[in-house]
Amino acid sequence: MPQKSIKTKSEHAVIPQQAFDWYDEYAHGDIDRRTFLSRLGSLSVTGLSLGLLTSSLIPDYAKAEQVSFNDPSIKATYEEFDSPNGHGKGRGYLVVPTNLEKSAPTVLVVHENRGLNPYIKDVARRLAAEGFIAFAPDALFPLGGYPGNDDEGRAMQRSLKRDKIEQDFMAAASFIKAHEMSSGKLGVVGFCFGGYISNLLAATMPDQVNAAAPYYGTPAKAELQPNVKGPLLIHFAELDKRVNASWEGYEAVLKENNAKYTAHFYKGAQHGFHNDSTSRYSPDDAELSWKRTLNFFKQHLV
Known about the structure:
It is a single chain. Helices cover 37% and strands 21% of the residues. It is an alpha/beta fold. It has two domains: 10-58, no CATH class; 74-301, Alpha/Beta hydrolase fold, catalytic domain (Rossmann fold, 3-Layer(aba) Sandwich). Strand 3 (74-83) and strand 4 (88-97) form a beta hairpin. Helix 1 runs antiparallel to helix 2 (33-41) and helix 6 packs across helix 7 (193-204). The longest helix is centred in the C-terminal third of the chain and has 19 residues, at 283-301. It is globular and about 55 Å long.
């Protein structure tokens, strides 16, 4: 596949595909920050200094607010929940429509591999603005919560036991489905690591999860995959080789299991294309995928 360059919004320059690939390695812990910056320094990008190139790739969460926390149509609070098989206690960002007079479907929103950052909280607000009860747990709560920067957040999440994090999200799913205003229907949407958790919950809680929409996430372990019933709405980025490599085997299991699923590949899109705080953001693909996700949840949860 030919290399693709993406023009930044703030600069009359393009970011080579190689830089995006290195950022993906860095963001997922395959290389450290020093190696990432060293590789970027080896690129010659007309119109972009190393500093501007780096800042274009690193999230700027000031850009990631589509629904203000002051929006009168929603109410946001932080709520704790019990997680006896995980870290004992968890906490998440709960967003409820203010005009809610009767029960509503619930949606669990699962962050990437760095804790509950502003982008994920905004996703929860977007769902509440559409009439859903949204709950976004923070895997880093046992360590004090998202620290305010992604580098430290990634390190913190790596320091926690993966199986306990998974149990925390299972407990969070049960918590929000049992909310006093819940209609009893539960959806899950997650991004990157959160996409993996969405697939995991579909496999470990198939009778509790009524609809799951993983964005660029890998599947659950092979022995769990046959439990998946769906429905699933799966979003992939065409240029995301790491995640896409797992799809052929996962799809074969879903077909064999007669699970309900729909998969979309977004042409030319990068891993993380829905996240509007980085240069990987693809507005058209993000808008289309989100419209599909909302329609999917309205179809299966409302």
